[in-house]
UniProtKB/TrEMBL annotation:
Residues 87-115 have a biased composition (Pro residues). InterPro entries: AIM3_BBC1_C (IPR057402). Residues 65-75 have a biased composition (Basic and acidic residues). It comes from the Eukaryota. Residues 246-423 form the BBC1/AIM3 cysteine proteinase-fold domain. Pfam families: AIM3_BBC1_C. Residues 57-170 are annotated as: Disordered. This is BBC1/AIM3 cysteine proteinase-fold domain-containing protein.
Length: 427
């Protein structure tokens, strides 16, 4: 670029020199032709003095190094700087175009069925705490009735499932060698005397069969025997020909406290009232056991289970004298319950010194009585009984169970006869 500017300046200087030469020639020609001589020459000199010498000025500028640098810097400074555009303003927000209203018209295509609503998502349970319990699925607990209906019957009570037969059930010696089973009048051997039993017999020339059912008084389980023998055999050969089979039925199911209360409501007051009504009288043979049996049978009109041996119903309470706690305590002792003592002994002590002030024995070895009243703490019981102190007449009495120091006592609740099951000869 610098070389181009230098060449241009040289061309301009050459043109100016040509102009100066032309002017000099003109002056000369004027001098030759001028008649006035001096005045015209003076004018020309004056004119030349006022004319700048462009050739010398331009040549001096381009031939000097500093002048070249200054000129180049001047051209750079004079060059226009690039223009920095400012950021354009943001475009104005456009309002969404509102579509023109469309006139409603019936749709010819079928309307699809609404989508199924999503399943409800349970609320998140805070961490560290268990999820809420759904009480609607929670099983309800059984509440004992405080006033069960008096008119209820055993069929309305849901009894537990029967228990399987217990091993080691009581064994009996049938003494078949005595041939008691083949006699015209059946008389059980001494080993079976005093038991609650029933029997049936079928005879024919081909075969005879006797079925005997015995209820065990201790737990009310049932043992059945079936004895068979040839009908045409007699004498000593009959004992060898006779055969026996044994079948066991488990004890009745244990009653719940609610069922025991229900039995009390139905039978308790009647049993106690019967005992109170015969005070001063002898009932039956005068035995203590007879009073309890007659009170249960007559007051219940045959709906309650009749006593079997020394078992008078469902067990409510069982304790051994001198023990710190009872063996069984299934319900509170109530009016109409039956007490059964075995070699019982009571001691009354002085509350201050602890010395024994009185002693009484109950049962030689067994004694039965009827409860007529119970103290609030369920420890002192009023009773009626007979065959006491040499008298067979019914008389009142009282026992303090806290003073029971020896022997065994069981308290039974009269219950429905269906509970223990009928004693029959089906085999």
């Amino acid at each position: 670029m610098f070389e181009q500017q230098q060449a241009s300046a040289s061309a301009i200087a050459a043109q100016l020199n040509q102009i100066n030469l032309s002017a000099t020639d003109s002056n000369r020609s004027i001098e030759k032709t001028s008649t006035g001589g001096g005045s015209i020459r003076d004018k020309i000199k004056a004119l030349n003095s006022t004319q700048p010498n462009f050739a010398s000025q331009i040549a001096g500028q381009f031939n000097h190094a500093e002048s070249h640098h200054n000129e180049e810097q001047h051209n750079v400074d004079a060059f226009p700087k690039p223009f920095k555009k400012a950021a354009p303003p943001p475009p104005a927000k456009k309002k969404p175009a509102v579509p023109p209203p469309v006139a409603s018209r019936p749709v010819s295509s079928p309307v699809p069925a609404p989508a199924a609503s999503p399943a409800a998502v349970p609320a998140e349970t805070p961490k560290g705490t268990p999820p809420p319990i759904n009480f609607s699925t929670r099983p309800k607990g059984y509440e004992l009735p405080t006033t069960p209906p008096v008119e209820s019957t055993p069929s309305q009570i849901a009894a537990p499932a029967p228990e399987p037969p217990k091993p080691g059930q009581k064994e009996f010696d049938l003494q078949l060698h005595t041939l008691w089973f083949a006699q015209p009048t059946i008389q059980l051997p001494p080993t079976l005397a005093g038991l609650n039993y029933t029997y049936s017999i079928v005879k024919s020339n081909a075969e005879c069969a006797l079925t005997l059912a015995i209820r065990i008084s201790e737990d009310l389980s049932i043992v059945k025997y079936r004895i068979t023998w040839p009908g045409n055999v007699s004498g000593p050969a009959l004992a060898a020909a006779a055969k026996q089979k044994r079948k066991e039925l488990p004890p009745p199911p244990t009653l719940t406290q609610a069922q025991l209360i229900q039995a009390y409501e139905q039978f308790g007051n009647g049993v106690a009232a019967f005992g109170e009504s015969v005070i001063g009288q002898q009932v039956g043979d005068g035995e203590c056991w007879t009073l309890a049996k007659e009170a249960i049978d007559q007051s219940s009109h045959g709906f309650a289970m009749s006593p079997v041996g020394y078992t008078h119903g469902a067990l409510v309470y069982h304790a051994v004298g001198g023990a710190s706690a009872p063996i069984a305590y299934n319900d509170s002792i109530r009016r109409g319950d039956i007490l059964q003592f075995t070699s019982g002994k009571f001691e009354t002590r002085d509350p201050v010194t602890g010395a024994v002030r009185a002693t009484s024995n109950v049962g030689n070895p067994n004694h039965t009585s009827i409860v007529t009243n119970v103290s609030p703490n369920n420890r002192i019981v009023d009773i009626v009984h007979q065959n006491v102190s040499g008298s067979r007449k019914v008389q009142p009495g009282q026992h303090n169970l806290d003073e029971f120091v020896a022997g065994d006592v069981k308290i039974f609740r009269p219950v429905w006869k269906e509970w223990a099951g009928e004693l029959d000869t089906t085999f």
